[in-house]
Design goal:
The protein has 2 domains: 123 residues, Roll (Ubiquitin-like (UB roll)), CATH 3.10.20.10; 123 residues, Cytidine Deaminase, domain 2 (3-Layer(aba) Sandwich). Strands 1-6-7-4-5-9-8 form a 7-stranded mixed beta sheet, with helices on one face. It has a 6-stranded mixed beta sheet with strand order 11-10-12-13-14-15. It contains 7 helices and 15 strands. The chain is of the alpha/beta class.
Length: 272
């Protein structure tokens, strides 16, 4: 999958514009320094971005201004708008306010226009601009180990850079074959989760072999993202809601919450 910058669909070639997604960060600051009395404090920055699929605007998001292309890819995958294999290339404009995802030529994207609706999220300005039916399928179970869960929780407790500076963001991790492959921070826990999903998709990683970790509480919409993306194990630092546990059991998601580096609670598991 290609990530493109300053992209002109009519004249540019993707070979010229292809860059590695880890080099796709824009230069927008994640935080700003404010002085209160005699004390300087770092405050997290809110950033607005519109996500397009084949030039159709599908999401307006409020987020932290990092890993924006990854956020766009993760959002449309975790919300069931497209399959990861359908994505051809991603364009992020130089100001990071527009992320355009182009699908492969043989893939049709059909989205009904609807009244703008707010997306269930801890950010106040996330909106869905189209209506698309989500398709959830039973998940294929994978073997997980207690030490993997505790290692994810320990990584969270070590605190990532933006949280250490501001204490105002959420974190997410994605593990594959026992390795923590991706981490992300954002003002919204849904965004952070979408970022690590997007990173995995861009790298061609098989989501059905992965474990997700989130720093926040685990309501049903977070479980829905994991199920829709096809990730079979979800780990949360916080507690789940009853509805989140019900959905996990319905679709075969292993749900592990209250995770710490030396303990966790299993709410739904399908391996004997």
């Amino acid at each position: 999958m290609n990530i493109l910058s300053n992209f002109d669909e009519k004249t540019a070639t993707k070979e010229v514009l292809c860059v590695n997604h880890r080099a796709s960060e824009n230069q927008i600051s994640e935080s700003m320094t404010f002085t209160t009395g005699n004390t300087e404090r770092e405050l997290s920055v809110e950033h607005g971005m519109t996500i397009y699929v084949n030039e159709i605007p599908v999401y307006s998001v409020a987020c932290s201004p990092t890993k924006l292309a990854e956020l766009a890819v993760g959002r449309i995958v975790s919300e069931g708008m497209v399959n990861p294999s359908d994505i051809d290339k991603v364009y992020l404009c130089d100001k990071g306010i527009n992320a355009k995802i182009f699908l492969k030529e043989n893939v049709k994207f059909e989205a009904g226009r609807s009244e703008i609706s707010r997306v269930a999220t801890c950010c106040t300005d996330n909106k869905c601009l189209v209506s698309v039916e989500q398709e959830k399928k039973k998940l294929t179970h994978i073997i997980w180990k207690s030490e993997e869960i505790c290692r994810l929780a320990a990584a969270m407790e070590e605190k990532l850079p933006l949280y250490s500076a501001t204490h105002a963001v959420h974190s997410a991790f994605l593990m594959h074959n026992g390795n923590i492959c991706y981490q992300a921070e954002d003002i919204g826990r849904h965004n952070a989760l979408d970022k690590v999903i997007g990173m995995a998709v861009i790298d061609g990683m098989e989501l059905s072999e992965c474990i997700l970790f989130s720093s926040g509480r685990v309501p049903v919409d977070m479980v829905s993202k994991a199920v829709t993306a096809g990730v079979p194990v979800f780990v949360g630092k916080g507690a789940p809601t009853a509805q989140a546990v019900d959905m996990a059991k319905e679709y075969g998601l292993t749900l592990i919450c209250n995770a710490r580096k030396d303990s966790f609670n299993v709410y739904s598991d399908f391996l004997e």
